[in-house]
Amino acid sequence: MGGEIVHKPVGMGGLATLLLVSAIAHAGDSGAGEGMDRDAAVSAPKLEEIVVTAQKRTQNLQEVPISISVLTEDMIEKRSMVSLSDFIKYVPGVTYSEFAPGNNSIAIRGIGGEGDRSTAMYLGEMPLTALGTLNDPDVKLVDIERIEVLRGPQGTLYGAGSMGGAIRYIPNAPDASEFSGRIEVGYSQVDNSGSDSKYTTGVVNLPLVKDKLALRVVGFAYDNAGYIDYVGNTIPSRVAFADAVNAELISGDDGGASQYTGGRATLLWKPTENFDATLTYVDQEIDQTGSFEDSLHLPAYQDYPMSFGSRTEDGKERRYISTQMYNLTMNLALEKFDLISSTSRVEYDGNEARDISRDLPFPIGALSYADTQADTQELRARSKFDGSFNFLAGLYYQKNVWNEDSEVPWIADPSTCCFGFGTDPNDLYVYVSGDTVKQKAVFTEIYYDFAEKFRLTVGGRYFSYDRERFTFTHGALNGGASGSLSKDSRDGSTAKANLTYTINPDQMVYAQWAQGFRLGFPQTPPIAAVCDLDNDGILDGTNTPINTDHVDPDSLDSLELGSKSTLWSGRWVLNAAAYHITWKKIPGSSGIPTCGIGLIVNAGEAKSLGMEVESTLFLTPQLILNAGVSVIDAEYTENAAALGKENGDDLTIAPFQGNVGLQYNFDLLGHPGFVRGDYAYVDSYVIDDIYELGGYSKVDFRAGLEIGPITAALYGTNLTNEDALIFENFGNRAWHLMPRVIGVEFGYQF
Question: What is the pTM of this model?
């Protein structure tokens, strides 16, 4: 990049900067047309037009008046993207932490934290986000047409859980006109690993009835190497502790190895020009041995877990998630309206075994078994009037059920149990819980072109929900058996207004005010006899009332100014947005008091002020430059004593980010090829006023060649082998960047 990256907190001056960007873009396009040879301008390559459905209708990306990033199938391939963690670092304003396969945290524009997810995820029309902690889908990027990342809030069209925004995976649709397919294999080595990684993917498209019926089938198998070294047997204090309780320490150098297997089948039926139906089925299994976690007390990628003995297959920590997804989408095109129905079911079933003896002076583990079922129905009508007025309206229903059984067993020799906490090693602490949400909503957006170059969009969503949670706990650490059932019913609304001014066919500016929300939930207060020993009505070790039995919905208001420009005769796309967000009733954990139980509370208010810029430019007919940058100033605007935060304290996840990529396309003896390099920077930020996360640069590389139906590629990720800390938990557990990966791929198209 050259030079040092320097940044300052963004003030309201960022909004003025946005308008300046648009003005410069407008001037640049005019100048380019005058200074460039007319014939050269016509023959110069143009950037591909990207079509999206972010606003639940088909539009050119440059005509969508919201902040949105899109990665096309070609971008996914040429940047060696396989999973969520591979592409999210190239999206300005988005931060991501992965704790384990299928367990992640996403914050867009600094909006994240406790409670339900703040970023909605979709596969086509199918909502993927659901309740629970073992059910985050890590969609493998096989046969994906594009990824749309909508920055939030997106409360009108996408509802609860889209305060930060929405991520939409759009798979390739079946093609009823011709047979085609692709097979691909890959091999890679991970630095610091005792094994290697390999994968196989396949896609076949079958036209069953010409132009009427088609089936598209996708299959994949990924065997990912682990890279955590288990060194407990080399630490004298750990060895002494294990000997004292007659426990076994895990050894090896492949902790965190995982296998992803699954596939997707999509059947398209188009009996007439005016009607089509698409049936989709997805099946995926994730099986991880060991954990990505390492210890803050040791060098990066080292850990010292105890064996679970016969409680797991090989005594190691485990994580398993099985996912099935079903969706039926039907489209009926009438003369003045399009009618759309989307019916979905998503099922998750998982279990996890974690050693928590690292964090406590007891040889105990945590076992969890969870399942989730989410049923969703959405009906939409979209007008196609010839005049200046159009609308979109819809009805939404979802029932989401989550159940979890957890226990804390003694994982050492049962005869050494249990340091005064009872005598049954299988009844130290057992926790059974469930969460059921029934949600209904009606939403609309109205579009009015009130002048030649102006469009006004207004929208709203009314929602209501009933939520019920139950818990049952028993065991020596719980002080006996206890249980509760808590309920919460709410309704509310969210709104938006957007004004768009089209300067010319290639340039547009917009201003938007929008709201977002996240559902609240009931919770069971701690047992006063255990957690309020001084009987003052306050959870010991906090300032939180012990009778806190629910968490209110949190919400936000956002003001956004943006511009979209296509310049230099289609060779340069430049998009920018600036925003100011006010976030109210932020949910957060009140901490872990002396009784070992915490509460989620509504605490404080915050603001998030920032700016994002993205650019793609043909420097020459063969050379493409991509760049993006985001700056966020996110902080509390009032004291949040329950969270230990004061006015002016930073929100946890809100760093500066920047990325740049350069791709050179060439022809080698008549065969197309490319070479590409990408650089991403994430600024440092502090959590818990102690641990500094981020502060790293990541360099990736890929080169490929196509010889007829055969493709070959060489790639490397994290070439400089950065080992920056990306998340911390429990004061000792840490997650680092994945080490350097070098790999090769071969594909055959038919």
Answer: 0.90
